[in-house]
Design a protein that fits this description.
Elements: E1 3-7, E2 10-13, E3 18-25, E4 33-39, E5 46-51, E6 58-60, E7 68-73, E8 78-83, E9 92-99, H1 102-105, E10 111-112, E11 116-121
Parallel strand pairs: 2-11
Antiparallel strand pairs: 1-3, 3-8, 4-5, 4-9, 5-6, 7-8, 9-10, 9-11
Length: about 120
Amino acid sequence: QVQLVESGGGLVQAGGSLRLSCAASGRTFCTYSFSWFRQAPGKEREFVAAVGWSNDNTYYSDSIKGRFTISRDNAKNTVYLQMNSLKPEDTAVYYCTAAVRFGAVKGGGDYWGQGTQVTVSS
């Protein structure tokens, strides 16, 4: 019902910034909550951030708090992850997920994108 396409990944030096985008197609974008997950080589999938029906309701993992910002633009059916002060340990494939319930999206949504690679070099 909902298709998600991530973009904006790439290679960046430590201390730099990237903005990831998640374009969502569907009839009821505004009713979904969204989250970002990431998975680095040899590591388990890790929760990054989540946003509810509005940008007033967000939740972040401790590892990225203060550096990353999740936001949504309902007019564009797009979710963003602004990543600042990037570190080599942020290197991972980043996935966008969607779910009807905010609580569910923090554990992984019902819908997943294909992911976008973020590589941070020293």
